Amino acid sequence: MHTILKSNTKEVVIGAERAFVMIGEKLNPTGLKKLGQALVEQNFDYVKQLAQRQVAWGADVLDVNVGHPQIDEVTIMPKVVEAVMSVVDVPLCIDSNEPKILEAGLRCAPGKPLVNSVNGEEKQLAAVLPIVRDRGAAVIGLTIGEEGIPETAEGRLAAAGVIIERAAKLGIPVEDIIIDPLVMTVGHNSNAATVTLKTIELIRKEYGVNINLGASNVSFGLPDRLAVNSAFLALAIQAGATCSITDPIKLGSAIRAADLLLGKDSNSIRYLKYFRATEKLREQEAAVKA
């Protein structure tokens, strides 16, 4: 099953037999004070720099989130979308919990964007899915039900089913639903990652839809987070994950290596191309810092 996202001129296809799709996470002020300040000051030059750097490092899609207490997100979201699209041409993932902010971003996003996100709560389904349908977008569905995040893989499978079935009733194609099985930190629960991996396998078997991960959650509170995130992503890709909202600069190499080892990169062409491109970028960025 393929989920197709589009910008003005570029098409990104997400699918089990395709290259793993990296959705750049850095256009989100959560935990990034410099970006938050740039949004407050409407310094869109910094936004453009972040967009360009992520795409240069291999991001196929860019997540855009403007959540900040000091700004009017409905006003700022379209400005950020326009700033990003003025310097890169990749599909966008419009990221917000608020329907009005999603609508503001989707009005400006070209092609076929991705919405991040909806969950299995009735209030959210009723508010977000009609927006997705009317815009002709794809959407990430979080495996959260009315009682919160299920502790078991079977519970998360059920939450995914609620989203997929509700979307179908509204006429949203199943291929436009990407499910996020959610991952909690293994620092607090040693079984957190295994539950997520099992959830991926169950959802792929039952529904065949594409699977997204926010992989950095798994290592929260632990030292050497990059090692944990890289190992988890490789396991998740093997289990059936097909895309991730992640840091392409830190995790791109691990993702391309996983594709290679799983037989999704004939003659190592993609891995070698990525290595050469990023090696050059490292040299250029080191020269600038020097």
Describe the protein's topology.
Layout: E1 3-6, E2 11-14, E3 21-27, H1 33-40, H2 44-56, E4 61-64, H3 73-85, E5 92-95, H4 99-108, E6 114-119, H5 122-135, E7 138-142, H6 153-169, E8 177-180, H7 192-206, E9 210-213, H8 225-239, E10 243-246, H9 248-261, H10 269-289
Parallel strand pairs: 3-4, 3-10, 4-5, 5-6, 6-7, 7-8, 8-9, 9-10
Antiparallel strand pairs: 1-2
Measured by DSSP, the beta-strand proportion falls in: 15-25%
Helix content: 40-55%
Could you spell the SSE succession in H and E letters?
EEEHHEHEHEHEHEHEHEHH
Low-confidence stretches: none
User: What structural category arises from helix and sheet content?
Assistant: alpha/beta
Average pLDDT rating: 96
Radius of gyration, CA atoms, in whole angstroms: 18 Å
Task: Please report the distance between the alpha carbons of the first and last residues.
Answer: 47 Å
Q: What is the overall number of helices?
A: 10
Number of strands: 10
Q: Which CATH-level-2 architecture of one domain?
A: Alpha-Beta Barrel
